[in-house]
Write a structure and sequence with these properties.
The structure is a single chain. 32% of the residues lie in helices and 27% in strands. With 328 residues, the chain is an alpha+beta fold. It has two domains: 236 residues, Bira Bifunctional Protein, Domain 2 (BirA Bifunctional Protein, domain 2), CATH 3.30.930.10; 83 residues, CO dehydrogenase flavoprotein, C-terminal domain (Enolase-like, domain 1, 2-Layer Sandwich), CATH 3.30.390.50. Strands 7-8-9-10-6-2-1-12 form an eight-stranded mixed beta sheet, with helices on both faces. Strands 11-13-14-15 form a four-stranded antiparallel beta sheet. The protein has a three-stranded mixed beta sheet with strand order 4-3-5, with helices on both faces. Strand 8 and strand 9 form a beta hairpin. Helix 1 crosses helix 7. The structure holds ligand LAQ. The site of ligand LAQ has 25 residues, from strand 5, strand 6, strand 9 and strand 10.
Length: 328
């Protein structure tokens, strides 16, 4: 077994390194650990916009990254440790998460913390979740990874994942919102994400006598960065890859009410757009709808493009800032 401790806090890099390892180490058992700067990691089959508080995420520079495993959306920061097992897929029961959550549970139990696997993929203490786990099987490998909340900013976690469920209709995987807790309340004083990581590595080393520490080589890092550039840092993957959805939003601007009904197809393109309102100007609104059709449902893109057209011809006295919330 190779134990790899990522030296990066960049969520793009760490999530990309999981795909790199899966593809490039087909026969090797791997235990990877990483800690990300503030980020939300959404499941492969989720509608990203439906899972995140977009304004908050942008204001707080929280990265949003889609991972290759299914499941829900979780928040990461420097107080959250991620662990990831990569093993050749033999005859394991894919639905059983316990094999790879066991080291964490056992270690915590040895430390007197009453951690347990509850349901299929959550680790709980005192009825509160501190670890979410997800997995996939591809290229002959199983990858199972999980979070460990040690000392995360719980208010930021809650705010970043706070959404209005009424805006989106889709068949995407929904997150299962739970009560969460940090392990810091149950661990010896002075425990940090770093010190906990060291304990976990020692625990794994003790259990796997052939395990050895590996660091990514320069060549490997180059490959990982290539994956970041091509996939994990792109809007197309992190947002656009979401399944088809219908989006509905009504807002009030000083001039009156506006409502948007938008159909977005996989890839992020707006396929149908209907805008309603009670105060429109002379130019037919259909012309504005047609302008939007075929564009990405991407707020940054819309912000840039809407500032280039004369909105007053459709809406009378409105500004881009007033109209923009209609799309988010
Ligand atoms: N960091 C973290 N750890 C545990 N639970 C969390 C976390 N962030 C949010 N949550 C809670 O879990 C639910 C979502 O639960 P849900 O069960 O829907 O999703 C998961 O657990 C997915 C785990 C993915 C783990 C990967 C490992 C490495 S990269 S990400 C969310 O709404 C919050 O209530």
């Amino acid at each position: 077994m190779l134990i790899i401790e990522s030296t990066s806090h960049d969520a793009y890099v760490n999530i990309a390194s999981e795909e790199f390892l899966m593809k490039n180490y087909p026969d090797q058992d791997i235990f990877l650990l990483y800690v990300n700067a503030p980020s939300i990691i959404v499941g492969k089959f989720q509608n990203t916009l439906a899972e995140i508080n977009l304004d908050y995420v942008k204001e707080n520079n929280i990265k949003v990254v889609r991972r290759m495993s299914g499941g829900g959306a979780v928040y990461h920061d420097l107080g959250n440790l991620n662990f990831s097992f990569h093993v050749p897929h033999k005859d394991q029961d894919f639905m059983d998460f316990s094999q790879f959550t066991k080291p964490v549970v056992d270690m915590l139990n040895e430390m007197g913390v009453n951690a347990e696997l509850v349901g299929r993929n959550d680790l709980l203490v005192d009825g509160k979740k501190f670890s979410g786990n997800a997995k996939l099987s591809r290229h002959g490998k199983i990858v199972q990874h999980g979070t460990i909340l040690i000392d995360s900013e719980m208010e930021i976690l809650a705010s970043a994942l706070k959404v209005n469920p009424l805006k989106f209709v889709d068949k995407a995987t929904k997150s299962t919102r739970s009560r969460v807790t940090n392990l810091i309340h149950y661990l010896p004083e002075g425990t940090t994400t770093e010190s906990f990581k060291k304990l976990l590595i020692d625990f794994i080393l003790k259990e796997n006598e052939h395990a050895k520490i590996h660091s990514f080589t320069e060549d490997e890092m180059n490959e990982i960065h290539k994956l970041v550039e091509e996939k994990y840092s792109t809007w197309d993957w992190n947002f656009g890859f979401s399944p088809n959805y219908n989006f509905q939003r009504a807002i009030k601007v000083p001039a009156g009410f506006i409502e948007a009904h938008i159909e977005v197809e996989r890839g992020g393109n707006m396929k149908k757009v209907k805008i309603f309102g009670d105060f429109f100007a002379s130019q037919p609104i259909e012309e504005f709808e047609d302008y939007l059709i075929g564009q990405n449902h991407d707020i940054d893109f819309l912000e840039e493009h809407l500032s280039k057209i004369d909105l007053t011809q459709y809406f009378g006295k409105v500004t881009v800032e007033e109209i923009l919330p209609l799309f988010k």
